[in-house]
Amino acid sequence: MKRLLLLLAALLMVGCSSSSSSGGGASASGSESASLELRLQLPQQSRQARAGELASLIIRVVDADRPELDVISPVRVDLTGVSGTIVRRIPDISPGRRRVTAQAFNSEGGVELVGDSGVVVFAPTELVPITLALHPPDAAHLSFVTQPSNTLVGTAIAPDVSVELVDALGQRLTSSSAAVTLSLNGAANLGGTLTVTTVNGLATFPGLTVDTPGSGYTLQASAPGVTGGVSSPFDVAASVTAPTQLAFAVQPVATTQNLTLPAVQVTLLDASGVVVPTANDPVTLALGSNPGGSTLGGTLTVNAVNGVATFSDLSLSQPGLGYTLIASSPGLTDGVSAAFDITAAFSPPTQLAFSIQPATSQARAPLGTVEVQVQDASGTTVTTANNAVTLAIGANPGPATLGGTLTVNAVNGVATFSNVILSKSGTGYTLDASATGLTGATSAPFDQGLPHNGLRLIPGQPFGPFNNPLRGAMTPDGQFLYVTEFVNPGDILGFSVDGTTGALTQLLASPFVGPGVLPGGFAITPDGQFAYASSNQGDNIRFYTITAGNLVPAGNQTTAVGSGPLGLTVTPAGGVLFAALNLFGQLESLASPIPPTLTPVNAASVAGPAFPADVYLNPAGDLAFMNTGDVYMVTPMTHVVTLVPGSPFGVLGGAHGAALNPAGTRFYSGNDSPSTLFWIKDINPTTGVMTDIPGSPFTLSSVAHQVAFSPDGLNAYTFDDNGDVHIWDVDATDGHLTEIDDSPVSPGVGTFPSAIVTDPQGRFLYESVSNFIAAFQFVP
């Protein structure tokens, strides 16, 4: 409200004055307005790799001191078929300190390239040429803060040129100490200090000179590992002439009443707009537009030095919007500054307010930058405040816990939170901000989606009913899923997989003829061309070719194996099949050099509990693991298996189901009795010996019938009596599990899951439970 009253007062006092406002969306008009000639340069790699992707460009001219205000309406440029340099002229820009920004978008609305001019002073009636070198948005880049002005041969450019290092959002990287080098684009030599180390992200170059007269020179700024920048063009005249006019080189900027303004500089120019370096005339400042009835304090008359008069102690006594200064000197044309504001002196802080709201995001991921302002009673940010501000959950639909850095000291009246996270998904969360002695604030509502590696139910699931689906596998390309039915006549179900949703559609030729009575295991070769199915009661394995998803028996041939084959797996390189023999607890390896022939290599007795159900190979294919905790060394080339001394390394009464983590370095297994125990074991990659991690076995709140991992190995999944899926964080150091808040996930049907199939493409997870197939999608 205070700012609105000040604005109305300023408008009443300024009336129809010809002096222009500093922005806020309304451009100046008539003779007072400035114009922009903008040249946008696409980087060479963008012309080659991105030209076909660029669709549109948005150009904005904003107030340099209040960048949230557009000086003009954004300009949109169609980039279809455009490459190289783009030139646009933009009229009717209100004078003052401005920044010009550009964003190039692809056809999907993503930002491909950005550009930022840095601070540029637009004088009344002036045509300002600016060149922007566009660059990828994730790259730090250099931007000119003080542009080079017109000068004379051998005379230092005044005021000094300055360059800042900024991030993709145009914010100065104050921690940078990069060495910035300037070079001249033009047929002349650049003199002076050409390489300067940035201080708080800013490099200032004193004493720059050019030895040859000319028009349209530009400066090129560069630094190691940083995208360079190009200055606005400037001219170099051959000789000194007498000054005729004054112009503001460094404009006054918004300040608080009675505080000193940053230094203001006025240059003495000849008729062509070149600084006259020999001029030492006295220059006097006075108020032009005076909306607040203020008194101008400080040293108001200064003799120019090398053609530049510097005023370093100016102040204004009253707040107001749209002040201007007038510079005068005997015999010279006056100069008028850009408009600037003076804000009221700060009142004591009384309250908090969210200036950047928490954004909708995934649970367990940072909310993005959240900012809370310390304000006075009128709602003005108290930039001297450094109060400790604390965040807490307000509305908590999850319910979730809040993590990250939750207490931050305000800097310049703003507390910035950059790593706040919520532990669970939900709709309509809010955050509360508090600080001792201040009225708190509540954020706008926001949502949290499922976390990375969370599970969402696939539309249409569960699929079925079927006849007791038992074991399954997917083709490496993720297009087809196969599941054995563990009942007579022992068929094999086949499904096509929707690559977007994961929904299953039974193939027309499904079910396929199985290997015999009570089919158990199923495995697919790494090339996706062949498949194997085992008959647990028929003691044989059948070989199939995969043609357009259909399973075609290879000559109706089956291979006899030992008693009760159930679990099957194929070596990572293919060609050798391993079968877990359920009845007598054996592991048998079978070579398949010429499909469909399967030749037994050997069988090794299991030294632990009988009835193994599954076999797992590590990624190298040189160790084989049973769900019972038995481990085998696999001899290279021959694939003869040898029981590792000390087997079984496990589990009491045999495991319900087990798995190796994706790296093959740890063994995870449920337990048969007691059924709530869960084992995690480190694997010695040389000997195959397994040892419990500290705390193993762990007692879980539910049975873990089966175990699976996310594609990136960051999360594990266990499946309980109800078919519900429990989601666990995997500790990167010791491998122990911590259940996340968005767990468990229920498919809503079935009991006692018998198999888990994860999509080789990392998209979906399928669970055989009772007479159904439950289906889930991994959340990216």
Descriptive overview:
The protein starts with a helix and ends with a strand. The protein contains two helices and 72 strands. The protein is elongated. The chain is an all-beta fold and 780 residues long. A hairpin with a 6-residue loop joins strand 63 and strand 64. 2% of the residues lie in helices and 45% in strands. The strands form 20 sheets. Strands 10, 12, 14, 17, 18 and 19 form a six-stranded mixed beta sheet that branches.
Instruction: Kindly provide the radius of gyration, computed on alpha-carbon positions and rounded to a whole number of angstroms.
Output: 37 Å
Distance between the termini: 45 Å
What percentage of the residues does DSSP assign to strands (E)? 35-45%
Which class do the helix and strand fractions yield?
mainly beta
Low-confidence stretches: 1-30, 45-52
Total helices: the number is 2
Task: Please outline the major beta sheet.
Answer: 6 strands, mixed
Average per-residue pLDDT, rounded, comes to 85
